[in-house]
Automatic annotation (TrEMBL), chains A, B:
Keywords: Amino-acid biosynthesis, Aromatic amino acid biosynthesis, Cobalt, Cytoplasm, Lyase, Metal-binding, NAD, Nucleotide-binding, Zinc. This is 3-dehydroquinate synthase. It catalyses: 7-phospho-2-dehydro-3-deoxy-D-arabino-heptonate = 3-dehydroquinate + phosphate. Pfam families: DHQ_synthase, DHQS_C. Catalyzes the conversion of 3-deoxy-D-arabino-heptulosonate 7-phosphate (DAHP) to dehydroquinate (DHQ). It comes from Evansella vedderi. Its main location: cytoplasm. Its EC number is 4.2.3.4. CDD domains: DHQS. InterPro entries: Dehydroquinate_synthase, DHQ_synth_AroB, DHQ_synth_fam, DHQS/DOIS_N, DHQS_C. It is found in: Cytoplasm. The keyword Mitochondrion does not apply. Residues 181-323 form the 3-dehydroquinate synthase C-terminal domain.
Length: 359, 359
């Protein structure tokens, strides 16, 4: 399956194809029309153990391919790793005709993408996502690292030259990683595709056993929503903010619990449940979303707001990247597929948070 | 005087106006049509002592203006200062509606610009150059920091929202700083404007006593050359490389001597003399450039290639950002105003270097 994203910088393809990791080099040459002078594969230790060899074997012998392996997990999105990778690129004497390959989940994609964005003021890079969550982060060109004062606070927009998705890579994912990624899948249904939402309810009943066709179609349809939105609003000046549905509270929960205590998607799922409730209140509508909450719960999600101080959650929501002048802006739904970005008063949020917490 | 640069991202103005530092805030609002939520002025300790107060006084009381001061000199373009400034921006709780003001020379412009390029994936910034050299670096959107393995190896393209040039700020510059900046001025004449070259010879006979009109016109005409080239080739895929005239050897000399031992422009001047000689040889032309070398010497330039190992110079030229596959590409002149980028063999370079060195 093949999607095209028409970014303002250059169009690029998203290929979703089981087994494609074994032909990575061919896909790159065919799809990007580039002939890089050399390659640097950036991956993490877990992915390296599983898939690095297969990926490297796809390159002909005469092509120079270097490898840098970072530790797995969010902590790799640090200034230190960023600087280390730039040093490695310089030591490998990569020139501006070189290409970086991000082989991994969202962390590797963001980190390697930021290295590509800033090495010699920008060289091309290719995303090879290995998680379901990365179906979201690998499209749209957002790259960056974390700062101790906030996640993703340092970064750039740097569009990939190609996204090559091999769904077979997901077969080794643990359950919580599926949950983390699937929250973004269902989010795309909520904000833009009511039919997809229903398709998901019918077709995804377990993360244990996948039909490769269903998995590929799910990734395709979810990416299609994301791709359309980022095409229309590359630099997040307008509609791209809708992708933040469930994320304002989700990010605050992640940060307050401490990163790694809960996966991104599991926190976003809690945030979506909350945003759905606030939506009904603010717009005086009945969204009938309970059936989807049940679906999420049957897939193992715990949708209860964790036992943290709600005033601290509120403070964190105020310093979100999307906030202006410390007001809190929320993505809410008038109906499925019809999101709106609006300012919410602290009072409404506090009231809802107090009501929902622990129940 | 007013120039407009039509960058692909957004058009921006370059204002050259004596005394304008005292109306910085008004110029920003008028020219950028933005109303930033707050400002962060980034400057260095030397500039802060001289001009920070005047600049800050241009802001109305109700506008929030924060200040970060870095040490002066090339060493400030480090990962450490970069991270410190991002931390400061987060501590000041700057949101995406904030604006960064780079008040300083090329170092401050590059560093502050890179912070602006990557803070929350990019916020607007304004260049307020305080050196002659910065007339070059403040236009075109190149921002970045140094790596111990190479200068400007980490960075981005991030276009300023405004360049506000107050030539009065240059009156406190030491002689070698004038020389550093003027090399880029005359370079613009060499590569693109023969008439300007002649105008310079007639009008610039000393860096001690300036007529403010002559100085403003010189900056204007030199920036006009730069602006036209970067408009045509924003991301350095083609003609922008012509701006590298004199820089291939210049950079190598700077790096080999150790940064700070010779100013950028003084090294570039040596590089231009060398490139002129190589041009005559390669193109079998007579450029009659001696009159301009004399002019430079009368302005205090030492155009002799310093006593360093020429094989080391050659190695450094090979790892230049502009090089591909370790070949050496040089900007040469067929005639004044008619540059060409061509690959030069090591043999020709070695021969010329051996001949010119120390003589």
């Amino acid at each position: 399956m093949n999607l095209q994203v028409n970014s303002s910088v250059h169009p690029y393809s998203i290929i979703i194809e089981p087994g494609s990791r074994k032909q990575l080099y061919e896909y790159i040459i065919e799809q990007t029309k580039k002939h890089p002078t050399s390659f640097l594969v950036i991956t993490d230790d877990c992915v390296a153990d599983l898939y690095l060899e297969e990926v490297l074997n796809s390159f002909p012998n005469h092509i120079r391919v270097e490898t840098s392996i970072v530790p797995h997990g969010e902590k790799a999105k640090s200034f230190q790793q960023y600087e280390n990778l730039l040093t490695a690129a310089l030591q490998f004497k990569l020139d501006r005709g070189a290409m970086i390959i991000a082989l991994g989940g969202g962390v590797v994609g963001d980190l390697a993408g930021f290295v590509a964005a800033t090495y010699m003021r920008g060289i091309p890079f290719v995303q090879v996502p290995t998680t379901l969550l990365a179906h979201d982060s690998s499209v749209g060109g957002k790259v960056g690292i974390n700062h101790q004062l906030g996640k993703n606070m340092v970064g750039a927009f740097h569009q990939p030259s190609l996204v090559l998705y091999d769904p077979e890579l997901l077969m080794t994912l643990p359950e919580h990683e599926w949950r983390s990624g699937f929250a973004e899948v269902i989010k795309h249904g909520f904000i833009a595709d009511k039919e997809f939402l229903e398709w998901l309810r019918r077709n995804v009943t377990s993360f244990q056993h996948w039909d490769m066709n269903i998995l590929s179609e799910m990734i395709y349809r979810s990416i299609a929503v994301k791709a359309k939105i980022v095409e229309e609003d590359e630099k997040e000046a307008g509609n791209r903010a809708f992708l933040n549905f469930g994320h304002t509270l989700g990010h605050a929960i992640e940060a307050e619990l401490g990163y790694g205590e809960i996966t991104h998607g599991e926190a976003v799922a809690i945030g979506m449940k909350f945003a759905l409730a606030v939506s009904e209140k603010v717009f005086h509508v009945n969204l009938n979303y309970e059936t989807y909450l049940k679906m999420l719960e049957s897939l193992g999600y715990d949708l209860t707001i964790p036992d943290v101080n709600i005033h601290k959650l509120l403070d964190r929501m105020k310093v979100d990247k999307k906030s202006y002048n410390q007001s809190i802006r929320f993505v809410l739904l008038k109906e499925f597929g019809n999101p709106e970005l609006i300012e919410i008063t602290e009072e409404i949020l506090l009231e809802e948070l107090s009501m929902k917490k622990g129940g």
